[in-house]
Design a protein that fits this description.
heterotrimer; A mainly alpha (284); B mainly alpha (286); C alpha+beta (357); A: 284 residues; mainly alpha; MetI-like fold; two-stranded antiparallel sheet; globular; B: mainly alpha
Chain lengths: 284, 286, 357
């Protein structure tokens, strides 16, 4: 019996080190430091100054709310765009092609966020490809300003999130028996009713887990809002970056980080409560 | 509306057009990026001015190709190195975690599992700053009390590896435990019954069974690490990884050399994807 | 003592719930010994205790005179054929069969020879290099058996190995298994819920019911003389009635079913009885007037359930209107029986099996 115990600890210790040194302690540090600041003498003291700074400057909390609302919007748009595709690949297209079509979906993830963002910049910028063709075809006279605004930012965010929404939806649709749809149709249900009453409830666990991951990725993304968003398209992660790297005010940055973490956890928690799912089930 | 049910023609056509548009949306940025890597122009845009390989191989006053740009080559090398270390470490620790969570029973297992999944809902930026913060504090503490400077705890290559490892391991835990849960326990019993030791069982039965999942999560871990930006941004030192390098170049104004790098990435990952597909097909046929 | 396996007063509890209750039996060398019972009766638990995957809460398992307590499964001289077969999908047929031999450190040459002769014995000598996924159900079955038998175990345990096969193949494998066992002489302990598998193959059958054996006997005795009402109901097809009994003056017993059908039987057993079992084939249609020691009654044919040599009629008794299944021999005498016919029927007194509980 003692031999088995030995093996158990050999497995347990690296896992504990990973979770405590890299996840738990850093977040405790983050929490603690968000309540520290320097007084007039330059000594570090306990204070709420960092949080006060957040609430007293409207730019901060405006960005905060904006980030939250846009993240929810992007999550919803991603669902709208990808659900028909997930349904098409799992239930409509012939089995011969479904594997190939699903593999193609992975491409943007495989090449990385940066390359796809760069691709969108080339397409959308004033001297970009879309404007080139529009001008050439005589549809417009002067180039359109399509880059550096909220729309281009949303396009980029939806683009990088699609995979994380579609994969869980596809896996829950794959587990769905086609005869359920056949039965509903045989009993006289319209397409719309079938989607609403049969397909969506069945795919709900996949939709919830996809939404959680997408929401978190969008909320915590820095690259896409920074490169595709405009000067006014502020994203809260950019504020955190500014505090840490530009102003070197780590305590305030920690407070901002902690606020973002609290925001993402509470919205995810709320979504799980509303849809009656558990975290462990939703993510695995 | 599904394979076995007939639908009206307009519905079918409309649906197919939607799917076609989706795939155009999916591939437009990638294809455009690749094509413009070969355009003989100083800007990554149309019109087409002829085919050139300058953005890969040239080294004259005006144009420096990828393979002649030592900064790009070195950041690419660093990204490879980072990806390698991160995926090896994540694979080992993640597999250990999967075994613990699926096959063992112990106190606080539920809480530990919850912790192991937490990185999925922690934004990458937050992971970056919290690791930066605590490593700096730890480094300061060691320096103050023992007078030892540990470069490892300042933004550096090793901190990037640790930061990426912290959330990529979660991904490995999920993939490997999903596979492990489907493992038929009677296979282990059968092996024991035929005289195998515990160690034999893991070596001859369980690990070969997990092999496809292990290879798959190694590849995906590598790609996650290679393309990571949000966490790396805060932890990177003087050894910049490729995404960080590309990012600063894009901000400074882009040249087609970025398209050339992108082309190499797209091409390389496509090769990996094809390899993975063929490997899985061969496995399935066996 | 020539028992190869002795199970001595074994009990097993899971979280306070008793699954096996003080079970005590022996198996002779060379027997084809079946344990027959419904799912949940504890038969798999018993098998796992013999194999060493579970330790009994109390009692002992003794194999060839050696106490097995505390000996891990990989050190016991027994091998299992699992219900799921548990063939290793990552290995081909040959490697599967060689797996146990390699663990026992045989030389490659010895392994090759043993594997080849074992595969020939089960008729798979040309399949050595095939992947197990390429085999048919029956072939996989044989690989699983070969993999265990190649180690020359004292006892081979089989956990419902035919359960996953389709009916026709199952009938075929039954005969094949029985022949294989007779040829090798290895002791088989066979677990099943299918009474026909147990009856056809075994020379000893134990009927298991909620953690203990109701009866341990030869298949024939089990069928002819069930010890309990559970055995009577579980083994073979039968008609079951709730009854009350009454002793008469001339040493007879009146049997009355709930709905009022009346029968009589000689040989009064000095007990009250509550259940009556009559097998379909023990009912004699149109009995000869000279037949003695039978209970006679009238029936009306409701439907004919044609099934070749297994054809039956579903009928109602004129008195009491009890539904009863009767075997219909497919010979000229009964050829013109039709739905709606009324006729006399009879059962020999010995075939009226009465039980108290």
């Amino acid at each position: 019996m003692s031999k088995i115990k030995w093996g158990f600890y050999i497995f347990l210790i690296p896992v504990l080190l990973w979770l405590f040194l890299l996840i738990v302690f850093p977040h405790i540090d983050l929490f603690v430091n968000s309540f520290r600041s320097q007084n007039n003498l330059g000594d570090s003291i306990w204070s709420l100054a960092n949080y006060k700074a957040f609430f007293s400057d409207s730019v901060y909390w405006y960005t905060f709310v904006r980030t939250a609302v846009y993240s929810i919007l992007v999550t919803f748009l991603t669902f709208i765009v990808t659900f028909p595709v997930a349904f098409y690949i799992t239930k409509v297209v012939s089995v011969k092609f479904s594997g190939f079509l699903a593999l193609l979906l992975l491409m943007p993830f495989w090449v990385g966020e940066l390359v796809s963002v760069y691709g969108w910049m080339i397409l959308l910028r004033e001297s970009g490809i879309i404007n080139f063709f529009l001008l050439k075809m005589g549809i417009i006279d002067t180039p359109l300003k399509m880059l550096y605004n909220d729309i281009s930012m949303i396009i980029g965010l939806v683009y990088m999130s699609m995979l994380f929404m579609i994969v869980p939806i596809m896996s829950s649709l794959e587990g769905m028996d086609d005869s359920l749809i056949e039965a509903a149709s045989d009993l006289g249900a319209s397409k719309f009713t079938i989607i609403r009453k049969i397909v969506i409830p069945h795919a709900a666990p996949g939709i919830v887990s996809g939404s959680i991951v997408v929401f978190m990725l969008v909320l915590g993304d820095y690259l896409t809002p920074d490169l595709l968003g405009g000067k006014n398209a502020l994203w809260f992660t950019e504020q955190i970056y500014n505090e840490f790297i530009a102003s070197f005010n780590w305590n305030e940055g920690a407070a901002f980080g902690f606020l973002l973490l609290a925001l993402s956890t509470s919205i995810i928690w709320l979504a799980l409560k509303i849809t009656n799912q558990s975290f462990e089930k939703a993510v695995s | 509306m599904i394979r076995t049910l007939p639908s009206s023609k307009t519905y079918k056509i409309g649906y197919t057009i939607f799917i076609a548009l989706f795939y155009v949306f999916l591939f437009a940025p990638l294809i455009v990026t690749c094509v413009l890597a070969f355009n003989n122009s100083n800007f990554p845009t149309l019109p087409w001015k002829g085919f050139t390989l300058d953005w890969f191989f040239a080294n004259n006053g005006q144009r420096v190709g990828v393979f002649e740009d030592s900064d790009l080559l070195s950041s690419m090398y660093i990204s490879f190195e980072t990806g390698f270390y991160v995926s090896v470490m994540s694979l080992i620790v993640g597999t250990m975690g999967a075994f613990l969570f699926v096959q063992e029973k112990f106190r606080f297992k539920g809480a530990l599992y919850f912790l192991a999944l937490a990185p999925l809902v922690i934004p990458g930026v937050i992971l970056g700053i919290s690791i930066l913060l605590s490593s700096t504090i730890a480094g300061g503490f060691v320096d103050q009390h023992f007078g030892i400077d540990i470069p490892f705890l300042r933004p550096s290559f090793s901190l990037v590896v640790l930061g990426q490892f912290s959330f990529i391991t979660t991904f490995v835990v999920l993939v490997v435990s999903a596979k492990l849960k489907k493992f038929d326990g009677t296979l282990e019993e059968a092996a024991l019954n035929l005289g195998a030791s515990r160690f034999d069982v893991i070596r001859l039965i369980t690990l070969p069974y997990l092999k496809p999942a292990l290879i798959g999560s190694f590849i995906v871990s590598f790609l996650m690490s290679f393309g990571n930006f949000n966490t790396t941004l805060f932890l990177v030192g003087s050894d910049t990884t490729l995404p960080i390098d590309l990012y600063s170049r894009i901000r400074d104004g882009s040249t087609p050399v970025l398209n050339a790098v992108s082309f190499l990435l797209i091409f390389g990952t496509s090769l990996l994807a094809v390899f993975n597909l063929i490997y899985n097909n061969v496995k399935n046929k066996e | 003592m020539d028992n190869i396996l002795e199970v001595q007063h074994i009990s097993k509890k899971f979280a306070g719930h008793t699954v096996i209750k003080d079970l005590n039996f022996g198996v002779r060398e060379g027997d084809f010994f079946s344990i027959l019972g419904p799912s949940g009766c504890g038969k798999t638990t018993l098998l796992r205790m013999i194999a060493g995957f579970l330790e009994p809460t109390s009692g002992k398992v003794i194999i060839r005179g050696e106490d097995m307590s505390g000996i891990p499964p990989n050190k016991r001289p027994v091998n299992i054929v699992f219900q799921s077969l548990a063939l290793f999908p990552m290995m081909n047929v040959k490697e599967n069969v060689a797996f146990g031999l390699r663990r026992r450190k045989f030389t490659n040459k010895e392994i090759d020879e043993k594997v080849f002769s074992m595969l020939s014995r089960v008729g798979l000598e040309d399949y050595g290099n095939k992947a197990v996924t390429q085999l048919s159900g029956g072939q996989r079955q044989r690989v699983a058996i070969a993999r265990s038998l190649v180690l020359g175990p004292s006892i081979l345990l089989l956990d419902e190995p035919l359960g996953a096969l389709d009916r026709k193949l199952r009938e075929h494998m039954k005969i094949e298994l029985k022949l294989l066992q007779a040829e090798l002489g290895t002791t088989f302990i066979y677990i099943t819920h299918d009474q026909s598998e147990a009856l056809v193959m075994s020379n000893k059958v134990a009927v298991m019911n909620s953690g203990n054996f109701d009866q341990l006997d030869t298949p024939k005795n089990l069928y002819k003389f069930p010890a309990t009402s559970f055995v009577a109901g579980f083994v073979g097809e039968t008609n079951k009635f709730d009854i009350s009994t009454q002793k008469t003056e001339n040493n007879m017993m009146n049997i009355t079913t709930k709905k009022g059908w009346k029968l009589e039987k000689r040989f009064f057993e000095d007990e009250e009885h509550n259940f009556l079992f009559i097998r379909p084939e023990s009912i004699i249609l149109k009995p000869d007037d000279k037949l003695k020691d039978v209970s006679r009654f009238m029936i009306k044919v409701k439907t004919i359930l044609f099934d070749g040599s297994n054809t039956k009629i579903s009928a109602y008794t004129k008195v009491g209107d009890e539904r009863i299944l009767i075997a219909l021999p497919q010979n000229a005498r009964f050829e013109n029986i039709a739905v709606g016919d009324e006729m006399e029927a009879a059962v020999h007194h010995n075939d009226l099996k009465c039980y108290k509980e």
